[in-house]
Design goal:
With 206 residues, the protein is mainly α. Helix content is 66%, strand content 4%. The protein contains six helices and two strands. The protein has a two-stranded antiparallel sheet with strand order 1-2. A hairpin with a 6-residue loop joins strand 1 and strand 2. Helix 1 crosses helix 5 and helix 4 runs antiparallel to helix 5.
Amino acid sequence: MRTYKIPASITLAQGILESGSGKGRLSVKANNHFGIKCHDWKGPKIFHDDDEEQECFRKYSAPEYSYRDHSIFLTSRQRYSDLFDLSISDYKNWAKGLKKAGYATDKNYPKKLINLIESYKLFIYDDIVLKKRKQKKEKKEKKQTKTKQEKQQKQEKQQKQQKQEKQQTQQTQQKQQAKAAKAANAAKAAKAATAATAAKASKTAK
């Protein structure tokens, strides 16, 4: 469900219905739980009477490969593309959409799927996956918020540090300017004193 965006309830209900609860010939002899025919299949095959006599069906080494192939089958065929515009929790319209797309010829196919889902409460599996997805999304959002806050705090710290450095630079410049002014005033006073002493000495000499 997480990988292929197909409701778990739909996959399970189809598997139960198509395989006769796992007791049908295709599921027992070929691990084919969805009645998927060969089409462009290059793997092992089994022949079985269906709409016509001795039709070609896919054969799998284990049931899980049948379930995976079912998901790939739906996602890779254009006629099922409209299904993926539906909500992943909307099993009722998924059931109707499968019939509309031509997955089965039985006019009661949607009703049968819905009855199985509701009788066995298969929608619980949708809820479990969606809950995990929600938790994962919330965890991701929480992480993003934390990262954003940390980035903002870092920027504020840098700005504060830059402000302090600027203030320190200004204070240092002011001290240097004051020191220079003091030195200039001292030099000016010394020059004036020297001039006054020289003028006094000259006057005394006369």
